[in-house]
Structure prediction request, 206 residues.
Amino acid sequence: MRSSCHGLCVAIAFTLAACGSLSPTETKPAPEETGTTPGSTPVMGAPAPAATPTPSPDPSASPTPAPGGGGDGADACGEPLPPPVTTMNVKVHLRGAEAWTLDSTPLVGPDGKYCATIGFTDGRSTCAVRPEGNPQRSACELYAIGRAKDTGRAGPTWYKDGQLCTGRTFGCENHPDNQYLLVAYKAGTYSACANNGTCGEVVVDK
Prediction:
């Protein structure tokens, strides 16, 4: 009888122990993820820098114009800088047995004030960029007319019947020493053009 009670008592003790282990344990719910550490102060993004207003152009400022050469030659030309080329005066300069030599001169105006200021005192309103013999003439012509598209030299771009002069076989070639001159071997309509699109032409009927 004692042994049976002993076994029963042991069983009851285990049962009570098991019941005690089933007591619920309090747990704290995990904090929801909010993107911030609990208890910390959220850091706001830095404010965007204020836009810098674009300054208004100064009406008194007068940028240096560049009629033909993109400003090339402006420093050597000096004041007053020539206005845009409006006329290309093209003519036959020499007639040779094998070739003719053509000549071109860029003219500006009508601008009577400019022409008078640079030394033309005969009342003309269309004139060369400087008088013949003026040491500034080459630089002022470069400023006004620009550089030839095919050679890169100071002076006009020459065409025969609308095509660049490429050599004697084609019928014409740029003068070896002066871009304002052209050697014409064949008949045709010859044009000399400034970079602003102003052209002058002459017909060669040799």
Notes: DSSP finds four helices and nine strands in the chain.
